[in-house]
Amino acid sequence: LYKTEIFSGNPNRKVMMLSFDDYGSEDQVGKILNALTKYGAKASFFVNGPMFTYAPNAVKRIISEGHVLGIHSNNHDIFPKLTSDQIDNDFCNFLSSSEKVVPGYQYKYFRFPYGSRNEQSRWQVASWGLVNVMWSDTSGGVSAVSSYNEVVSRAANGKIILMHMERQGDVEAIESIVIKLLQLGYSLESIETGLR
Prior knowledge:
Number of helices: 8
Helix content: 40-55%
Shape: globular
Distance between the termini: 19 Å
Number of strands: 9
Structural class: alpha/beta
Order of helices and strands: EEHEHHEHEHEEHEHEH
Largest sheet: 6 strands, parallel
């Protein structure tokens, strides 16, 4: 299971990986994507099932603009409280919704809701061929100022930063965070390339 769970990248490489969880509106996710695209940055988005209903165009943009789309479960339930069948059903429902918006997209990465997992749920996610991506630090998303300060003050090689698409603090701070991290010399990459 060790190889199917990631907390950070290479500490010897000046790269950081911004990641966004849950789901947001077309406007919220659009603002995040606009900031990333403006500065040539890449990120990873771990979405819940409702994202395919509330922001299908944003989902398509995430993929078309070269970011990683990952699974954050369908319903955002606490996995250790679910039975094996319930976890399978959650995955199937997620994939069914995904297929309607981005048919054929091959998922590689998963993030447990709340980061909550146990041995059984970890094995089950691994059996689906998915790598569980945790995080090294979080923005908090309370306000634009605090999100900026939390990310920038603790910037370090190989860090995976947890942010949220629906938290206004993260949405408002993303452009200034990207600018500052680039000024500090970090390459901003998705999980796909940032882990190399």
